[in-house]
Amino acid sequence: MDIQKTASQIGEFGLIERIQKILGKAQNNKIILGIGDDTAVIDISGGKVQLLTCDIQIEGQHFQRDFLSPYQLGRRAMAVNLSDIAAMGGTPTFALVSLGVPPDFPVSDFEDLFRGFRDQLNEFGATVIGGNLARSDSGLIIDITMLGESKRDIFLTRSGASPGDRIFVSNFLGMAGAGVAILRHFGDKFPQKYEKFVNAYRQPSPRIHLGQRLAESGLVTAMMDISDGLAGDLNHICEQSHCGAVVLQEKLPFDPDLAELKNITKKTSEEMALFGGEDYELLLTVNRDADIEKLGLIAKETGVRMHEIGYLTTEEKGLVLQNSAGNTRPLAAKGWDHFSLNET
Length: 344
Description:
It is a single chain. The chain has 344 residues and is of the alpha+beta class. Helices cover 33% and strands 26% of the residues. A seven-stranded mixed β-sheet has the order 8-10-7-11-9-12-13, sandwiched between helices. A six-stranded mixed β-sheet has the order 1-2-3-6-4-5, with helices on one face. The two termini are 28 Å apart.
């Protein structure tokens, strides 16, 4: 019996498992996909499905207001939700925004926050259609529900991969984690040369267009966005697809300038790429026999780099990191956990 355990002891995903056990399998044939992926998927008419996701951002836990302007915070909070729609290969449509607002929160900041929401959604033809407001005496709370759509036969999940599939990620990893470390170290007076890292944290780019093209291509077997760190999120694909994985150490994609930040991040470039989190890039698997030139064309068309970083194996082989000499070691499936006592 673990009735006396706390949320921090079992962690975010332990709590999710308990939710699934309590609720059981939904007895509704319109539910195609429920708890456990980037979005839920509901069958609607016209050969389409509706995608639904939500994300809460709490001041002091997910963001510090002195790290971002209200406008940047609005854009960032919305981008986090858009990234879940991108991971399914979908098109965002509507958002509901609920806020817990401190009583001393400036009205001008409130307006800038909503301008950020609006402008981030406008890039993809989506809009805010409602929400809720409440007083919060413990900082700003932003809770967003995002809706999207996809064709019924092309949306992507975490569970379609197989042993032998090749693993790809978009862009560089570890950028946002480095940005947070820079802001903690320097505040807003950081050196100009570090701006790209700070921008990666402040202004993540939801890969909506890339996700759509990948879903339409028929190349991808499984996909999700990288929010908690590559190692932890790849483990989610492995668990749901019943696979193991080999990550090739020399193939990890990170900005060359990341290495000089080790004294600030307290981690190597490799550790930042594997465990940094909040990159909101796409992690995907592709059949070993797929036309990789087609994947390269999609990358070129969308302006987003794609990097092959490893391959899937059988489940019993687990998650491992392989160096250039071919030696392997277990790769800890750790990353951000909202309930962890220690930040990873």
